[in-house]
Amino acid sequence: MEEQVEEFGAERVMDNIVDVDFTDKIKVLKGAKGEYKAKAVIVATGASPKLAGCPGEKELTGKGVSYCATCDADFFEDMEVFVIGGGDTAVEEAMFLTKFARKVTIVHRRAELRAAKSIQEKAFKNEKLNFMWNTVIEEIKGDGIVESAVFKNRETGEVTEFVAPEEDGTFGIFVFIGYDPKSALVEGKLELDESGYIPTDDNMKTNVEGVFAAGDIRVKSLRQVVTATADGAIAAVQAEKYIEEHFAE
């Protein structure tokens, strides 16, 4: 892919952009290595899943800890799975996981779910779904793979440890407690929603002429590689059209 774009004259520069100025027709990006001027800019800084924040989580990510049910559900077919979270995404993903796992337990720090009532009704009817209320995950343990997890009840203080069944050897922990949009760079430079995402129209246009956004940084309902790729294709075509229309020689 890199070779293909370079054949068309694209120049690839690796730099850390620390500031941007979108006030004029020519946009200015200030990086650690230098300053760049552009006729159009595509912001694709992405968003990262929020972590549960317990010991062992980072070390065992991809080894039993996941943030994407559609990506990793089939790894836990006929196994036990824990879902951390209580919002719409957590409950919907938990229901999806019941198609693969033999048992799915939603671990929520409160006494009731935050998901929409319609989603809750479906969840409570699902026989494969179980719930641990007022509970947080304290630690994830394992030698190269998830082998056990420690949970704590926030009301009683009771600590319990779930150990992977011997016949399985492991189990899944899916964390769905939200995302952190990487929008600090454009804060005050572009319109952001209350969560920090960039609103765009269907052509990836932001509220600033000549600036487009693509991928997980956008306000959108589905954050996956396939949707980000589609956003990028649309943004690139629209950026080219913008340049042709506004910088005609």
Task: Write a brief structural summary.
It comes from Peptoclostridium litorale DSM 5388. By secondary structure, the protein is of the alpha/beta class. The chain contains five helices and 15 strands.
Task: Describe what this molecule looks like in 3D.
With 249 residues, the chain is of the alpha/beta class. It folds into two domains: 2-47 and 180-246, 3-Layer(bba) Sandwich (FAD/NAD(P)-binding domain); 65-175, 3-Layer(bba) Sandwich (FAD/NAD(P)-binding domain). The protein has helices at residues 2-7, 69-72, 88-97, 117-125, 225-246; strands at residues 17-21, 27-31, 35-38, 41-43, 47-49, 65-66, 80-84, 103-107, 129-132, 135-141, 148-153, 159-163, 172-175, 179-181, 211-213. The strands form five sheets. Strands 6-13-7-8-9 form a five-stranded parallel sheet. The protein has a three-stranded antiparallel sheet with strand order 1-2-3, with no helix packed on it. The chain has a three-stranded antiparallel sheet with strand order 10-11-12, with no helix packed on it. Helix 3 (88-97) runs parallel beside helix 4 (117-125). The mean pLDDT is 95. Its EC number is 1.8.1.9. One of its GO terms (molecular function) is thioredoxin-disulfide reductase (NADPH) activity. Keywords: Disulfide bond, FAD, Flavoprotein, Oxidoreductase, Redox-active center. Pfam families: Pyr_redox_2. Residues 11-232 form the FAD/NAD(P)-binding domain.
